[in-house]
Fold:
Amino acid sequence: MRKDRPKTHRSDSAGGVRSGPRRTCAGCRKSLDQDLLVRYVLSPQDEVVVDYRRKLPGRGVYTCLNRSCLELAVKRKQLSRSLRGGKEPSVEKMWRALYDQIRGKVLNLLGMSRKAGQVISGTRQVLSELQAAKEVGLLVRADDLSSAIAEKVEKAASCNNVPCTVLFTKEQLGRLLGKSERGVVMLKNGPLTAAIAKELERLDKFSGEL
Ligand SMILES: [Zn+2]
Structure:
């Protein structure tokens, strides 16, 4: 049996090796650690819905986190069949819902980081922090940041080998931090930042598609 082991998956916040239960993808039929798969359940309205956080009750069915496995599963009506109810959903709708749920999780983790004092925001502070290059784990910059500032920030990030992701608007980032608009947010190194990086990597699969 093939074992998929991306490096982000190998350790959890306690530094231990995680090995969750294995589930089968309804598309490619591979058996994988459920952390690597997307769960779908039947809603009380008898609709197939994405359950990215795997928190909803009831029977679940899984696919890999890629569009081709979802397409295969939907083509064979595997979601409704495995859930024993509902109508087979459209790939478009499920893919969109998945994107929204991952984004929601990022937003939620960013909120937790803020409460934990792991976030520095504001272009000036972030740039000076980058110059000192201490404890920087990740940068998020708003997609409506002016191109001059964006260039400055990205240059500083790449000089210091800090990944920089473009996500949310200035207004959304600001609201998240309980402030007015914020163009750049810096996250200190730590388990929360690692969790955010993992979700951002997943969001990357959607770029250019939605
Ligand atoms: Zn698959």
User: Anything to note?
Assistant: Residues 1-16 have pLDDT under 50 and may be disordered. The helical segments are 67-75, 78-83, 91-115, 123-132, 147-159, 170-176, 191-203.
